[in-house]
Design a protein that fits this description.
The protein is an alpha/beta fold and 198 residues long. Helices cover 32% and strands 24% of the residues. Bound molecules: S-adenosyl-L-homocysteine (SAH) and magnesium ion.
């Protein structure tokens, strides 16, 4: 897919297949960490086809690794007036061009704060937000309780072998999920798909 972002095609397809397998009568779909909408291009069509809704939670200021001087920085995405990252315009364009606007609801703000006030049960949760230890831990603690029993949890950038990438999504999200009522369904690259047991 053409959008900017961090979702290899095989993992994006696996993400769509996982969402397609969810029982959407259990609630809405939600992703934490949208950036320019690449993963939303895989999840949004599921919401459209099944007459559901995809919430996309992001403050659109970028994660630590997206800031100037870090590996995943894209200078074109800096708001020149504020000198801060702003991926929201790019996200909106991506969603509009894909014809997905009616089925995608951007929720712009701090993920953990939004999670604490969240009240809609989720049939499908995709976690791809900040990959530091604290952000990953908070995403696990605050978002996974909203997954309905029988619902799906997908986690990106899970690397069991430290040689392949950062630890937090594996240690702070994947392992705690397995220890707390989620079971493995599939893995594709760094994408892990689990189901919350009834
Ligand atoms: N899923 C995207 C990549 C997400 S990158 C894709 O397919 O390309 C991670 C995103 O998490 C960034 O856009 C960053 O702004 C967001 N993020 C990090 N910490 C956050 C927080 N505390 N609240 C909201 N969004 C956050
Ligand atoms: Mg990712």
């Amino acid at each position: 897919m053409a959008a900017r972002g961090f979702m290899p095609p095989a993992e994006g397809v696996a993400l769509a297949v996982a969402a397609e397998s969810a029982d959407l009568s259990l609630g809405a779909l939600l992703e934490v960490g949208s950036y320019c909408g690449k993963s939303a291009l895989y999840l949004g069509p599921v919401a459209r086809r099944r007459n559901s809704l995809l919430y996309c939670v992001d403050h659109h200021r970028g994660s630590e690794e997206n800031q100037a001087g870090w590996d995943f920085h894209e200078p074109e995405l800096v708001d020149p007036e504020l000198g801060l990252m702003d991926t929201l315009p790019c996200f909106r364009r991506t969603v509009f061009n894909a014809g997905l606007e009616p089925w995608v609801a951007a929720v712009v703000g701090d993920g953990p704060r939004i999670a604490r006030h969240w009240g809609t049960s989720l049939s499908f949760l995709f976690v791809d937000g900040g990959h530091g230890e604290e952000p990953a831990r908070l995403d696990y603690e605050l978002w996974t309780p909203h997954v309905a029993p029988g619902g799906i949890l997908a986690i990106h950038d899970v690397f069991p072998d430290p040689a392949d990438g950062g630890r937090p999504p594996y240690e702070q999200i994947y392992l705690p999920a397995l220890a707390n009522g989620f079971v493995d369904l599939s893995n594709t690259g760094s994408l892990r798909v689990l189901r919350k047991e009834f």
